[in-house]
Automatic annotation (TrEMBL):
Species whose genome carries this gene: Bradyrhizobium brasilense
Pfam families xrefs: HTH_1, LysR_substrate
Keyword Signal belongs to the record: no
Keywords from the named record: DNA-binding, Transcription, Transcription regulation
Family membership noted in the UniProt record: Belongs to the LysR transcriptional regulatory family.
HTH lysR-type domain residues: 6-63
PANTHER family: HTH-TYPE TRANSCRIPTIONAL REGULATOR LRHA-RELATED (PTHR30579:SF7), TRANSCRIPTIONAL REGULATOR (PTHR30579)
SUPFAM superfamilies to which the protein is assigned, alphabetical: Periplasmic binding protein-like II (SSF53850), Winged helix' DNA-binding domain (SSF46785)
Stated name of the protein: LysR substrate-binding domain-containing protein
Function: NodD regulates the expression of the nodABCFE genes which encode other nodulation proteins. NodD is also a negative regulator of its own expression. Binds flavonoids as inducers.
């Protein structure tokens, strides 16, 4: 014999009475009549073939069976609400315009978008990669969301993680020994460009700008061929390059913060993507040194 199916409406009435201990109060909380709530509890008891309450003229107390059911009833109602919400969210549609740095746009964000689209197949994400220093000025106009890089301790938006800027060079060539040092960088406006120039100048290291490109792949390819050194993030360090440190005569570079910027007026679809990116990219806070 199959087990009886417990209607969520009946469980809702049962939980309300169990919490308020009066049918009248439970009915008021549910915006139903007292007779309707009483009937629903009676129907649930008939289905379960168990008395759920000890009723008296002054109060209503849970029976042993009712106490055993209460936890399950709350969990069933919670799962029911979660399932309904999930199904409705799955049908959310819309368009989201995302701006992101080149390396994150090619290495970090695509798997996150794959997971997001699997949950929200009707949401269309348009992603543009490039220098994010100017993208944040166009939030709301050209972008709904922007993942941008800022100096550590500065910048608005939601902090996702920190990245150490590091020098990188060919694994097969000792290009860092050349004088002047050839450097491959990004156009003006790139934080790493200004940091690299400032660090070399402060270290009194002669250098020349050997290559400039908006393309991360092009800059890395030049470095991989031994034509120049470049600057990359530690979290997206290319496997084709070799990390350079102070032992190689290279000056230390600052740390950067990766932050998510949201337009003031976001659609529901954009808010869902923003929350998804924050949950996936945010690093736990580091413990203070003891």
């Amino acid at each position: 014999m199959s087990a009886p199916i417990m209607d969520p409406d009946l469980l809702q009435a049962f939980v309300a009475v169990a919490e308020h201990r009066f049918f009248t109060r439970a009915a008021s909380a549910l915006n139903r009549t007292q007779s309707a709530v009483s009937m629903q509890v009676k129907r649930l008891e008939e289905r379960l073939q168990a008395e759920l309450f000890h009723r008296s003229t002054s109060s209503v107390d849970l029976s042993a069976a009712g106490e055993g059911l209460l936890g399950y009833a709350r969990r069933i109602l919670s799962l029911n609400a979660e399932a309904v919400g999930r199904v409705r969210e799955h049908g959310t549609d819309g368009r989201v315009r995302l701006g992101v740095m080149d390396d994150y746009g090619t290495m970090i964000v695509p798997p996150l978008l794959k997971d997001f689209i699997a949950s929200y197949p009707l949401i269309h994400v348009e992603m543009e990669t490039g220098l994010t220093s100017t993208m944040t000025d166009r939030l709301g106009e050209a972008y709904d969301l922007v993942i941008a890089m800022h100096p550590e301790g500065r910048g608005e938006g939601e902090l996702l993680r920190t990245e150490q800027a590091v020098w990188a060079a060919s694994a097969a060539h000792r290009v860092e020994e050349l004088d002047p040092l050839p450097v491959a960088l990004y156009p003006q406006g790139c934080l790493f460009r200004s940091w690299a120039m400032q660090a070399l100048d402060e270290a009194n290291r002669p250098w020349r700008l050997a290559f400039v490109s908006h393309s991360l792949s092009a800059v890395e390819a030049i470095a991989a061929q031994g034509l120049a050194v470049t600057v990359v993030k530690s979290g997206t360090f290319p496997p084709t390059l070799r990390r350079l440190t102070a032992r190689d005569g290279m000056p230390l570079l600052p740390r950067a913060e990766i932050r998510l910027h949201r337009a003031q007026k976001l659609s529901h679809a954009a808010s869902l993507l923003a929350d998804h990116l924050v949950a996936a990219l945010r690093q736990p806070a580091r413990r203070a040194a003891s």
